[in-house]
Amino acid sequence: MTDDTTSAPNWYSNEAATFGDRLADARQALGMSQEDLARRVGVKPGTLAKWENDLSEPRANRLNILSGLLNVSLRWLLTGEGEGLSGPGETAELPEDISEILTELRQTRTDLVRMADRVGRLEKRLKLAWSAGS
Fold first, then answer.
1. Which of helix, strand or coil describes residue 7?
2. What is the mean pLDDT of residues 81-107?
3. Is 26 in contact with 84 (CB distance < 8 Å)?
């Protein structure tokens, strides 16, 4: 991820990409499926698919959630400017050991997101079981 404020053409600028393009690429960069992200945001997978295909747009509260979950700035998500993904050829080639560490870090982040979802589901089940037993 970079802070792309240079005057060079930006792969994710409004001239080159849509909101849906940026959303889909940021999700894929984290290794998340549409279903995973939709569940985390609290929408149906079909709704997320419409956002990624530029058939509809999320409300402001969902935009904030998306930018946080995808680890990109709200500004980048909306315009392609600011903290977000780098386009092809915009970053220097990383040494193999650094690349491996980044890959493992991204995988760990994805695993943590899944585990947080699982903890939330278990808490909900526990509350339901507790209230049913009372």
1. coil
2. 71
3. yes
Give 84's strand partners.
Answer: 2
Encoded tokens for 95: 């040494």
Strand, coil or helix: 105: helix
Residue with tokens 């409300």: 59
> Pick the residue with more confidence: 7 or 52?
52
**pTM of the full predicted structure?**
0.59
What is the distance between the alpha carbons of residues 89 and 39, in angstroms, rounded to a whole number? 32
Task: Name the residue among 32, 20, 23, 41 with its Cα closest to residue 84.
Answer: 23
Place of tokens 């870090």: 105
Q: Whole-angstrom Cα distance, residue 14 to residue 55?
A: 16
- Rounded CA separation 129/109 (Å): 30
